[in-house]
Amino acid sequence: MTDVLTLTSPRSDLPVRRTAPSLPLLVGLEIRKSLSTRSGKALAVAATLLGPAAAVIASASSDEDLGSVTGPLSVMGLLTGYLLISLGVLSTAGEWSHRTVQTTYLLVPHRGRVLATKAVAVALIGAALAALSTALTAGVLATMVDGVSWDGAGQAVGVVVAAGAAFAVIGAGVGAALANTPGALTGLYLVLLGVMPVLSNSKPELAEDLDPANAVLHLGMGEQGTQPIVVIAGWVVVSTVAGWVLTHRRAVS
């Protein structure tokens, strides 16, 4: 008596389980990582409260008629954006400064995917913190300032939220490009808070084409046109591309 073996082809209709973590999972991990450190928590709190605190001080110390809330909302939102730059820098350059980048690339051995995940994560954090800070600032203005116009407030809030996301991504891109936290922070703040104001005084036409802070203020106060949008988008694209290129060329040691 003989046994007959029947060979069957493997089924192709069965779902294949992915071994790599999904992008939403990685984004969630990056968000928790950014907000789990003491520096990340401190920056998140500072970014949330700086604008409202400045609004309280300005409202209490000035008797001038504001006219519209768009100016204060834009200025206070810009302060938040400046702090969110640091959060973005820490998310990328901090990995190299603290020697945790090796572990990150061992878990996810695709540098482009890691950078994309970090960009999405800091953009979400930046937008959320900017929205919360702006809501608190609006509450301060509604409580402490009488007779102010709220026309255009919706656009100002939208601009501030988008700027919060953009500034955080800019910080992440520059941090990835330089791979050095002090260097990235010093360079960015020197350019934004030192070079750009000097350029605005000496060559205002050129500053209008380069300064993202002016672009945020113009958009927040209702200026129409694409130039401010192009300026902010240019900073995001250039910093992100620089971070991507230099990260792929850098050896992990």
UniProtKB/TrEMBL annotation:
<keyword id="KW-0812">Transmembrane</keyword>
<feature type="transmembrane region" description="Helical">
    <location>
        <begin position="229"/>
        <end position="247"/>
    </location>
</feature>
<feature type="transmembrane region" description="Helical">
    <location>
        <begin position="73"/>
        <end position="94"/>
    </location>
</feature>
<feature type="transmembrane region" description="Helical">
    <location>
        <begin position="115"/>
        <end position="136"/>
    </location>
</feature>
<protein>
    <recommendedName>
        <fullName>ABC transporter permease</fullName>
    </recommendedName>
</protein>
<keyword id="KW-0472">Membrane</keyword>
<feature type="transmembrane region" description="Helical">
    <location>
        <begin position="156"/>
        <end position="176"/>
    </location>
</feature>
<feature type="transmembrane region" description="Helical">
    <location>
        <begin position="42"/>
        <end position="61"/>
    </location>
</feature>
<feature type="transmembrane region" description="Helical">
    <location>
        <begin position="183"/>
        <end position="200"/>
    </location>
</feature>
<keyword id="KW-1133">Transmembrane helix</keyword>
